[in-house]
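Propose amino acids for all 355 sites.
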């Protein structure tokens, strides 16, 4: 089949095989790939709406025993620069975000073995009681697995208890590239690909919506990027529990791994192939935090229908050298000037009335 016919088929919603995905990724003209992804996006979401969420990320601790080589944020246990916020400090940050209209908070940090599950249960319960209109979209598979080790209980039990305490959904962080070869090099102590997928499956079975991410641009090949999408597509076929896919690129400055930053065209190519390959994911998010807001705007023509969040105070990517941030006005301005209508959504992609 020619590249043009493959693109036509994928733009109309036809499923790509692994080999076809790799072929399009490597061979398709960037403009034609983008046009097919945009056609697919408009087919899935015909209205000219682009959504975003008002949220914040609170990095409650930088202490971590996983030591990923691509991470400039963590500090090992007992390091003098290690910190863990008190519950009161986290609650102050939640208040700040809630006062600005946030409907979602991402409380995420390192895998800190000093913190047991009761620390999180107490915190989430306070957030839920004091800010009932703010959804706790928090932690990551790594933190869930870390808590299971600390407590000597299963990851399913960790998720059940946190859900009981108020955690509403599980972000797809920590996926990086779900290929063993890559993880051995960049995050050898992190959960294995099948464990990441297994915890996601458990969260979805417990009724928690989840997202899926991909951190690309470290040491993986193009084939491994498609392999990552392939295992996500398989789980989505089984559970339907992912709301969105969020590919973002690695920021190499200040990290032990180092390397080169991805280019703008690489970013757009990944977005476009994601939109075409992940035919069972409803939403593709423009992860403007690393490539910047202007690339985030271009992403709206390469398959994305969502601009992500306002991310009022993120530290992990910031510490690796990214300085991008955005207000609601910034995001709306980008969306409007791209010819779309900005609409605020919640964690579950319900569109909210304009305030
Ligand atoms: S990426 Fe997360 S798990 Fe890995 S070292 Fe950084 S904080 Fe720890």
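Proposal:
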């Amino acid at each position: 089949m020619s590249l043009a016919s493959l693109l036509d088929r994928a733009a109309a919603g036809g499923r790509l095989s692994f080999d076809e995905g790799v072929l399009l990724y490597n061979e398709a003209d960037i403009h034609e790939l983008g046009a097919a992804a945009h056609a697919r996006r408009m087919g899935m979401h015909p209205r000219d709406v682009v959504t975003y969420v008002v949220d914040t990320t609170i990095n409650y601790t930088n202490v971590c025993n996983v030591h990923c080589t691509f991470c400039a944020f963590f500090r090992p246990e007992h390091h003098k620069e290690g910190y863990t916020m008190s519950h009161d400090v986290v609650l102050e940050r939640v208040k700040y975000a809630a006062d600005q209209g946030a409907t979602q908070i991402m409380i995420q940090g390192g895998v800190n073995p000093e913190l047991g599950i009761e620390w999180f249960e107490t915190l989430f319960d306070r957030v839920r009681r004091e800010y009932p209109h703010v959804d706790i979209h928090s932690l990551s598979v790594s933190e869930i697995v870390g808590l299971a080790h600390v407590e000597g209980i299963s990851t399913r039990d960790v998720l059940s208890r946190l859900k009981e305490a108020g955690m509403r959904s599980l972000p797809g962080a920590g996926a990086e590239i779900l290929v063993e070869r890559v993880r051995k090099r960049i995050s050898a102590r992190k959960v294995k690909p099948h464990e990441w997928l297994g915890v996601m499956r458990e969260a979805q079975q417990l009724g928690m919506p989840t997202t899926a991410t991909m951190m690309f641009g470290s040491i993986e090949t193009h084939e491994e990027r498609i392999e990552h999408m392939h295992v996500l597509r398989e789980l989505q076929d089984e559970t339907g529990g992912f709301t969105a896919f969020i590919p973002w690129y690695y920021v190499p400055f200040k990290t032990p791994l180092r390397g080169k930053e991805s280019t703008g065209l690489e970013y757009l190519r990944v977005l476009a192939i994601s939109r075409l390959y992940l035919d069972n994911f409803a939403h593709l998010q423009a992860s403007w935090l690393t490539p910047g807001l202007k690339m985030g705007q271009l992403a709206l023509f390469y398959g994305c229908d969502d601009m992500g969040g306002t991310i009022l105070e993120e530290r992990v990517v910031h510490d690796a050298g990214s300085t991008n941030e955005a207000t609601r006005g910034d995001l709306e301005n980008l969306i409007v000037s791209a010819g779309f209508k900005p609409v605020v959504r919640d964690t579950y992609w319900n569109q909210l009335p304009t305030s």
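The pocket of iron/sulfur cluster is lined by residues 64, 66-68, 71, 73-74, 110-111, 142, 187, 190 (CB under 6 Å). The first strand starts at residue 49 and ends at 53.
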